[in-house]
Design a protein that fits this description.
6% of the residues lie in helices and 48% in strands. By secondary structure, it is mainly β. The strands form two sheets. Strands 2, 4, 5, 6, 9, 10 and 11 form a seven-stranded mixed beta sheet that branches. Strands 1-3-8-7 form a four-stranded antiparallel beta sheet, with no helix packed on it.
């Protein structure tokens, strides 16, 4: 079964940290660019960070640069999004996504996505 399963969301205080994981199955993980997107209530879905199939290239939205770090372990078919210095405006449902053989910016900015996960809620609040 082709799927992406996110985990690691939750409630955290401003300034805190969370690590999201995305476990993939049912496809050749190493051939896919993987990204994290988020959607807050009343807002459009936006690209947060994307990583190339090899892990050599990453893209970060300006709003998360210097605070979020995206990495992947192709041996475990898993991608990790480390989120530090979280702000209330980071509150959203976070979605993992996959697209084969695409550039990281094309995926993140153009929302060029073929497969979506079900999403995990991240809430930053005191």
């Amino acid at each position: 079964q082709v799927q992406l399963v996110e985990s690691g969301g939750g409630l955290v205080q401003p300034g805190g940290s969370l690590r999201l994981s995305c476990a993939a199955s049912g496809f050749t993980f190493g051939h896919y660019t993987i990204g994290w997107f988020r959607q807050a209530p009343g807002k459009e879905r936006e690209g947060v960070s994307c990583i190339s199939d090899s892990g050599d290239n990453t893209y970060y939205a300006d709003s998360v640069k210097g605070r979020f770090t995206l990495s992947r372990d192709n041996a475990k078919n898993t991608v990790y999004l480390q989120m530090n210095s979280l702000k209330p405006e980071d509150t959203a449902v976070y979605y993992c996504a996959a697209q084969p053989f695409t550039q990281v910016r094309t995926m993140c900015v153009g929302l060029s996505v073929g497969l979506w996960g079900q999403g995990t809620q991240v809430t930053v609040s005191s």
